[in-house]
Prior knowledge:
Layout: H1 5-31, H2 37-58, H3 63-121, H4 124-154, H5 156-190, H6 196-234, H7 240-249, H8 256-272, H9 277-302, H10 310-324, H11 326-352, H12 354-357
Amino acid sequence: MDENPKETLTRDLRLRFWLGGFAVFILLLYLLRSILLPFVAGMAIAYLLDPLALRLQKWGLSRTWATVSITLFFFLATVTVLVLLAPILQDQLIGFVQRVPGYVSQLIHRGAPLWGMAKKYLSPADIAKLRASAGDYAGTAISWAAGFLGKLLTGSLALVNLLSLIFITPMVTFYLLRDWSGMTRHIDGLLPRRHATTIRQQLQAIDAILSGWVRGQATVCLALGVIYGAGLSIVGLDLGLVVGLGAGLLSFIPYLGTFTGLAVGLGLALAQSQDWTLAGEVAGVFIVGHLIEGNILAPRLVGNKIGLHPVWVIFALLAGGALFGFLGILLALPVAAVVGVLIRFGTQQYLRSTLYSDGVSPG
């Protein structure tokens, strides 16, 4: 039976409306990317804390008082941790800077046999090229680092972003967390009635993925930061707490935190110690941490049924960071979850359609 022309026209108009709305949303996101960071951060924190607010409501607190309690506790705990860690991190950084000349001497001493071998097998012209290339790369790296630090310290936009994260994010978190239930009900009331049930099902699937991955992975990152930081400090690695915490925080990108922390830790160990004992201990810390993550933390806290493949997660995070910076990293996982759910839904619809079966009954 032929389709009704009016129904086809209506479907085309709906498709144009949603595509146009999506294009406008992407354009606004790109144009306003420099000021959206505190709002996206506040929304992410509110999303993470919403289950706790619901639990406090079940215990008898109003939504407002639950929000006040949770927000104050969250930010006070964050500030307390930073205040407690700041002196330790400062001492490690100062000690590291003071020992840099010794590290350089140690690395030169370790590299002497390799340099002797290079002079033995390479011609004077090749050695001169190597020295010139090394000097050029070193100069480029120093210039880039100096320029980056200059922009970081003097850039007005960076200062505005930092201040907005400090002062605006808590307010955004409070209001979004307080009004979260009302906003979800309002959005639900705006859904097209004909497709409301289907849209709710897809939103529930997206929420299941995000809640399972984000909350679980955040806990895994904190646990790994403690494990790596404590382990590297115990074995005596200079700057061990900084390297360990950084590796833990970077672990929200699969394998990046472990491999980055291992590379940095081994480099510091080789510069700090005259033998390979410390390097072996550093490697042991990361091997143990990785085994704990893979066999205990990730299976229990994240699970393996969240629907986000590690390769897709890595691609989404790197693509988001390349396009929108830190804002893109925050938005990468929600977008990846939405795209993944829509792809699965589209695949199911395709398998049920005549486009797939061509009129032939399945089986």
